[in-house]
Amino acid sequence: MRTRTNMRINPPIDPVFKKRVIIANHYSSTNWPLIISIFLILIVGGLAIKFNTDIIQMVNKIGEKFLVEKPTNTKSANLEISEPKPPIEPKPPAPPSIDINLLLATAKTQLAKAQIVLPKGDNAYETYQTLVKPAPQQAQAILDEIIAWYFKQGREYISIGKLTQPKGDNAYDKYLQLREIAPEHQSTLALASQIVKLLHKKGKKQMQRQFYTTPENNNAVSTYRHIVNIFPNDAIAETALTKIAKKYYKWAISRKNRKRYKASMTYIEKGLQAKPDDAKLKELKLLVSSLINK
What pTM was estimated for this model as a whole? Predict the structure, then answer.
C-alpha cells in the first residue's frame, strides 16, 4: 500500500510564472481585516442612508400636515396667511324698561289736556304707540278714548255749521285726523257719513245759485271735491263736477271763437278745477295758449 506524502514545493522565483501558478497551502499576504472593515462600513452606511431617507420622509409628512393645519400660536402663524377676522360689533343696548302704570297715568293727563297728537313727544297718541307691544289691552283703551275725542269734536263742529271752514277748526279736518289714526273704525265711518250728507245739501244749493267756483269759501267745486276726498266713488259729486266742467268748456269755446283768448283761458282753468283730467279742457288749453302767444 502506498503512502501519500505531502511534498513542499517552493514558490517559483520567476515573477511572471509566480503570478500564473497557485501553490497549494500557500497563504497570500491579503489584508482581510481591512476588507472586512470596509464591508462593515458599507453595510452600516447603507443602513444609515435608508434610516436618513425614512427620517426625511417622516419630517416632510409632519411639515405638510403642519402647513395644512391652522396655526395655533404666533410662531406657526407665520407659515400661512390667515384671513382677517371681522370686527366684533358691540351689542345694542338693552331697551329701557317700561313703566306701564306711569304711561297710563301720562296718557290720562294728555287726554285731559287735549294733547292728542301735539305737541310732539308729549301726546296721547305717541303714548298709545309706546304701550301697544308691552300692554296691548291698555293701549287699545287709550286709542278708543282718542277716537271718541275726535268723533266728539267733529260732531260739535257739525252742530255749529263748521263743515269745511275755517281751516283746521272744522268737522272735515277732524275726520281726516281720525281717518289717519283709525280708518276702519265705526266712529270714523259714522262721522264721514254725517259730513257727506250735509255737504250734499250744501252743494245742491250752490249749484242752484251757480256758485260753481266762487265765492272762495262757498262754491260747489270745493264742496264736491271734499265729498270725493271722503268717498271717491260718490256718484252725486262726480255728476256735479262733470256738469260744471262741461259748462266752463262751453263758455271757453265761446270766448275763443270771439278771439277773447284770455277770457277763454280763465274759463278753461275754472273747468279744470272741477275735473283736472278732462281731456277736452286740456286740449283746448293747449290751443288757446298757442293763440295767446302769437
Answer: 0.66
> What radius of gyration, in Å, describes the C-alpha atoms of the chain?
56
Q: How far apart are CA 188 and CA 231, in angstroms?
A: 13
CA distances 109 to 115, 130, 134, 257, Å, are: 9, 16, 20, 66
User: What's the angle, vertex CA 22, arms to CA 21 and CA 27, rounded to 5?
Assistant: 140
Question: Could you report the per-residue pLDDT of 207-264, keeping only the tens digit for each?
Answer: 999 999 999 999 999 999 999 999 999 999 999 999 999 999 999 999 999 999 999 9
How remote is the C-alpha of 74 from its chain's centroid? Answer: 41
67, three cell numbers: 402647513
Calpha distance 200→198 (Å, rounded): 5
